[in-house]
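Message: Study each token:
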Amino acid sequence: MSLERWALDRRRFLRGLGTCVALPAFESLLTPLGARAAELAAARGPAVAPVRLAFVTFANGAHQANWWPTGEGKNFTLGATMQPLAPFKDQLQIISGLDHENATPGDDGAGDHARASATLLTGARAKKTAGADIRVGMSIDQLAAQHIGQQTRFASLEMTCDDVRRSGKCDSGYSCAYQFNVSWRSETMPVPPEPNPRLVFERLFGGGSPEERARNYRLRQQSQRSVLDFVLGEARSLERRLSPRDERKLDEYLSSVRDVEARIQRAEQFGDVPDPEFDTPAGIPPKFEEHMRLMYDMLLLAFKTDSTRIATLILAHDGNNRAYPEMGIPEGHHYLSHHQGDPTKLDKVARIDAHYMQYFAEFLTKMAATEEADGTSLLSNSMIVYCCGNADGNRHTHENLPVLVAGSAGGRIETGRYLQVPSQPMSNLFLDLLEPLGIRGVNQFGDSDGRRVLV
């Protein structure tokens, strides 16, 4: 075979191979399958549930008077917006005083909605551009995924109940990539969320019945092994015939192939495909509320099966102008958020806020009802951050952001309190969230200034 015939385009090959190794999720490491895995589990002693971290983001700020509790510390009363969370009061932390200075206009002028989304999980200032030269910063979920993502089938999971845009001009000269993404793998690479619950499900568990999923997985493994063996075999046969320059090119190529091989080997250690006991969703539902419910279910399944421990779910991008006619609200949410003190508009904003909170409460109810291998609840072993990059949607403020954390990370963080901290970067909270995940030695993120929040 000639070198010209063999030399596949590296990107095309890896893209194709990447498709065939998009493996479904497997049984939690807490309940490993197989005799050898059982022996290893017994040697480790009683199972300890892992800690999960998710960020659920909403749009256009919050009705301030209804969002914040009264009282302080352990002696607080939930505000009107959070009444659906009353059953979980002892599992909550509502935190005031957290800011995102890099989302403010500064010298960049208009574009608060784009900056709110771009800065939300990065703590960094977005470069104002509508072109391809986007730049902001790595997001905290992706930093966590870099450290612990190898412990699960998927390093992280990104979902949305909204549109997906990766380019084009959106808010006041900012790229749509800023406004429609909150997760960033690097300062120039957003991680687009998946809006279709069916595709999320099939990514996690595969398509068809549980038997079909398991059979298809085995066939994929065999096929992937065959492809890799063929490519590596052909490469070895060529090594003696290549020039030093071509040898360097081949080494670069094979390093990527071996990375794919390593991912396959890592996948094999997790055993067979778990049955999530959940019907495959048909697709994106016509009703937004059902869309939210399904995406919450996908997040629940991903954590329940230990398919990933890091996730983001965008309920609506900042600036979203969805109307809610089923609630008697024909106006758009963004339009109403610029209420200028109009009591009628304020009332509708408050109702929209509470509407979102109702579905978040349903999700927490399911999390609390899901028992872990060690007898604790999935909620108690999680940190679910519900937040927005805008505080007051009327004025586009980015200080004292609406933030709450549900779950105690397996008792590693204190809950059941209204925590009022001195004004400081929200990035300080992000650093505190890393420690319960077992991530040590990260002392700087975004615009953090060294202060602790969860003390």
